[in-house]
Design brief:
Ubiquitin-like (UB roll); 13 helices; 35 strands; alpha+beta; 4-stranded mixed β-sheet; 6 domains; 17-stranded antiparallel β-sheet
């Protein structure tokens, strides 16, 4: 007799797990010994997978309870829409209906997002190809897509889902999106502010009404996270100016009926400003009260400032950390006098316990060798904990450029109160670069550049690069290898092999000249650090310069070839020093950089000379986003042993990176016959730049405008050239953008001093570093 398990008999169990009814039989199962088990209805799932979940096997006794347990177990896997258990003789037959799997996920109508970004968002909620189809999961995915659009201000976005059957019991999921218009912030209003104007408070916010540059900043699109940050900025603005009673009472966000406009209304309570009546240190000061008191950045009589108070507590904690107290805390206890609007501050210092470092653990470096990271550590194992050295270690690891993220944490050693471990977790990033660029340099003509570099060859920390740059007047091919730890003591070795050609007369009145300077050579420099910011360089090179002259070549070059030949060999010895104290190499806002270099052309070659170069940069941020930059460059060269200074070592001035407003390399001495610029052996250039955020972009450091004032010139020997030798000055404005292809600088400069024969150029651009 054939029996089919009745779902009615286990309806209570089935209802508990949300199952639908199956075919109902009036017969119950008479217990029997199982001789075989068959599974029917499988399409994608392997039979072995089903048998691994079955609570029965051949030889077991089968009854109603076992049948109910089979159904519960198989439904619990989530693989099936329906499970039916029946018997035929002593054979148990399990018939299943598989849930369809998601075969493909696609999108239609998307313009605001990349497909990969939305796919990643759906993965975060559990929807991906290969997962079983679940209507609840699809609904959740729709809500996530709408949320993604809300973050960009598309409040009218609609998402429709279409499910299409595919082969092998799969389905395709298509999300069709009607994006609609994005909602722009039309007004940001403040209520209750009397001390500071609406405009002043809006300047503290990222969100704003549309302006001519909103397409780049997206600051006119409402975001809850941005608004939270903006409200905190407004709060800090008041607290930093003494308004201890300040409070944001309410925030209203209104959306227009057509979902195109948004209106923000922020109600605030300002209160009265508070001054500090007294401030004192308390707690365990470790007999260092005088030293710690010097770190207090506010004093009695000052207007209260949360920013200065936070800086004070941090400075004290950092100082205690330098003495080994890794878990020091400083709690500010205010006593507020509301009647007289004064506050008495007590800083309770708790140094906790002094600890030393047991072990430094490096994690996450899948490619970079441990030693490359470990040699940058200034916090050593088995020594007292020092927060200053730990911060310096993190900065040095970050400056390697091999990692996207560096996280340094202090972990107490369990069971040992005076020991900690330092966990350094790094996230590797690709350090190889293959680049190809095409541009146009005003004064240089078309520019093609290509390069391949690897900054971390085989994880060793050594870099190797090949770069090609070509323009109408200047071409170069350079191979550079840098070993930052040539010795275990941190001596750096830099090796360059180069080939350059220069056509300095391309833009002169002579258009058919074949005159060029060809330079090829190699050099090796060793950098010896003697502090964290200072390095001394020693180098030796081998160089050959060839001058291809013709009838149009300036007389000074012809004379040099007559006296010393067309080919000049050079064996230069260099000595240098540099100190870098800037907060950023790419976008500095404070600190300074100084370098000095001396080069000596040894008498074993054709040329004998010396030259010295000095450069100094200083940056000072006197207001948020406003940076004053000063730059000075000086150079001096002369011949030795009765020989003149080599003409191919001349300095040039004019153009971007020098004195803007003049043609590149056009300043200084000119040839007496052709009146072409020939450079000189003496250089003096100074630059003043005031950089500030582009209006409407907030405080975006990657896009800034600046004004500048430049001065300088080049001088040569008397009697071998013509032209005025006074300083030239230029002024103007510019735009600086840290673009995906590198720092881009655009200048519009005007000459302030004009002399006959000077060549001017108002618009210039450069891809490179500051100044």
């Amino acid at each position: 007799m054939k029996f089919q398990f009745s779902a009615a008999r286990c309806a209570q169990a089935l209802a508990a797990i949300g199952l639908g009814a199956t075919t109902i039989s009036a017969y119950a199962i008479t217990p029997f010994t199982i001789s075989d088990i068959r599974v029917e209805g499988l399409q994608r799932i392997e039979p072995g997978t089903v048998f691994s979940y079955l609570p029965i096997k051949q030889g077991d006794t089968f009854d109603d309870d076992k049948a109910s347990e089979v159904i519960r177990k198989l439904y619990a896997t989530g693989f099936f829409n329906d499970v039916n258990v029946s018997t035929e003789g002593n054979v148990v037959i399990v018939k299943v209906e598989e849930r369809p799997a998601i075969g493909t996920i696609d999108f239609a109508g998307i313009h605001e997002f990349e497909k990969d970004a939305l796919t990643k968002a759906l993965n975060s909620v559990g929807l991906s190809p290969g997962r079983y189809y679940d209507k609840a999961l699809i609904d959740k995915a729709e809500q996530e897509l709408k949320r993604q659009y809300l973050t960009r201000g598309f409040y009218a976005a609609e998402v429709t889902t279409t499910i299409s059957p595919l082969d092998r019991n799969r389905v395709g999921v298509l999300f069709s999106v009607v994006e609609g218009p994005s909602a722009k912030i039309r007004q940001v209003n403040f209520i209750g502010n009397h001390v500071f104007s609406d405009g002043t408070l809006r300047d503290e916010m990222q969100l704003s009404t549309p302006n001519w540059f909103s397409w780049y900043t997206k600051n006119d699109l409402y975001s809850k996270d941005k608004l939270t940050g903006d409200l905190e900025n407004v709060r800090n603005y008041y607290l930093n100016r003494g308004y201890l009673e300040f409070n944001i009472e309410s925030t209203q966000v209104q959306l227009s009926p057509d979902k195109k406009d948004m209106y923000l209304t922020i109600t605030v309570h300002e209160g009265q400003p508070y001054t500090i009546s007294s401030i004192k240190l308390a707690g365990n000061l470790l007999d260092r009260e005088a030293e710690l008191s010097k770190l207090v950045k506010i004093k009695a009589g000052d207007r209260f400032s949360a920013e200065k108070l936070q800086a004070t507590t941090k400075a004290i904690v950092d100082k205690l950390g330098e003495y080994g107290y890794a878990f020091a805390t400083v709690n500010a206890v205010p006593q507020i006098d509301q009647e007289h609007h004064k506050v008495d501050l007590t800083l309770n210092v708790d140094p906790s316990r002094r600890v030393y470092v047991r072990r430094v653990n490096i994690e996450g470096n899948t490619k970079t060798r441990d030693e490359v990271v470990r040699r940058e550590m200034r916090q050593l194992e088995s020594s007292w904990f020092d927060s200053g050295r730990l911060a310096l270690s993190k900065d040095r690891i970050n400056r390697l450029g091999y990692f996207t993220d560096v996280d340094v944490t202090t972990v107490p050693v369990e069971g040992t109160p005076d020991q900690v471990d330092i966990d350094v977790k790094v996230t590797e990033k690709p350090t190889g670069t293959l680049s190809l660029g095409l541009g146009y340099g005003s004064g240089e003509g078309p520019i093609v550049s290509a390069g391949v570099s690897q900054d971390n060859v085989f994880g060793s920390g050594t870099s190797l690069s090949l770069n090609v740059n070509t323009s109408t007047t200047f071409r170069t091919l350079t191979v550079t290898q840098v070993d930052p730890y040539f010795t275990i003591d941190g001596i750096k070795r830099i090796t360059d092999v180069y080939y350059r050609t220069s056509e300095p007369l391309y833009y002169s009145s002579v258009n058919d000249t074949s005159f060029r300077i060809i330079t090829m050579g190699a050099d090796t420099k060793f950098g010896i650090p003697f502090s964290e910011a200072d390095m001394v360089y020693f180098g030796l090179g081998l160089e050959q310069n060839r001058l291809d002259v013709d009838a149009t070549t300036p007389q000074s070059y012809k004379d040099y070839v007559t006296d010393f030949g067309r080919v000049s060999n050079n064996v230069p010895v260099t000595v240098g020093w540099s100190r870098d104290n800037r907060d950023s190499v790419l976008v500095p806002s404070r600190g300074y950089y100084v370098q000095a270099n001396a080069e000596y052309g040894t008498p074993i070659a054709t040329t004998t000379y010396y030259k010295t170069d000095v450069q100094a940069q200083y940056y000072y941020s006197f207001a948020r986003g406003f940076v004053l930059g000063l730059n000075f460059q000086g150079g001096y060269g002369n011949g030795l042993s009765g020989k003149p200074y080599p003409i191919f070592k001349n300095y040039y001035a004019g153009g971007i990176g020098s004195v803007r407003g003049y043609e590149p390399s056009s300043l200084g001495p000119r040839d007496v016959t052709t009146n072409d610029p020939i450079g000189g052996s003496k250089l003096l250039v100074g630059n003043i730049e005031l950089t500030f955020p582009l209006p409407g972009t907030g405080y975006d450091r990657t896009l800034r405008v600046f004004t500048f004032f430049d001065g300088g010139n080049v001088w040569g020997s008397e009697g071998d050239s013509t032209g005025a030798n006074g300083l030239r000055y230029g002024y103007g404005v510019g735009l600086e953008w840290i673009s995906p292809i590198g720092p881009l600088k655009l200048d519009f400069g005007l000459p302030l001093v004009k002399h006959a024969g000077d060549q001017y150029q108002k618009f210039q651009f450069q891809i490179g570093t500051a100044f």
